[in-house]
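Researcher: Here's a chain I'd like modeled. Treat it as a single chain, no partners, no ligands.
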Amino acid sequence: MKNTPLSELRKKQNAYFRKIGIVKPGRRKKSTIEYIVERTYEALPKSLKEYIDDKDQIVSVITNTIIQSGNAGQMNPYEALKQFAQYRRKKSGDNTKAYIYRRFKEEATSVYNKYNTYVYRLGYSSARYFMENATISQEGSLITATLELPAKTSGIAYEELYIEYDFSGQFLDAQMY
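Model: Modeled as a single isolated chain. Structure tokens:
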């Protein structure tokens, strides 16, 4: 990346910072590098930003790493932030939740349709509600997802969605109680 002045960087859109590439300190001030890293953070997808708890700390760490590595360093701040967020996402178990939800949607369509309709009529997004409220437990190759469903005042009310998925046999069982 060429040495663009800070005044020009402020005019750029977030898409520019996604494709910024390797940042070398060169003759740049620390404030300019810090600005680049902050804007790069803003360019991250919303789904990854939620896994970065302390924005200021991670911006500071990446800025200092770029400065300390000098011109010999090869650091792309967008890729560094993206990998950090993906690592945190992986450790949180959300990848497993997303995988179970996707398989549930594809394989148990009748139960999924019932769940989707039930949750939608109560004003929730079925995917978002599942990702935020499901609890996952694992015993060997068997993964169990339980989800407390929101209360309904009239009509048929369900209390829980229960999904079992066996990785070894690729078997899925889903039920609403």
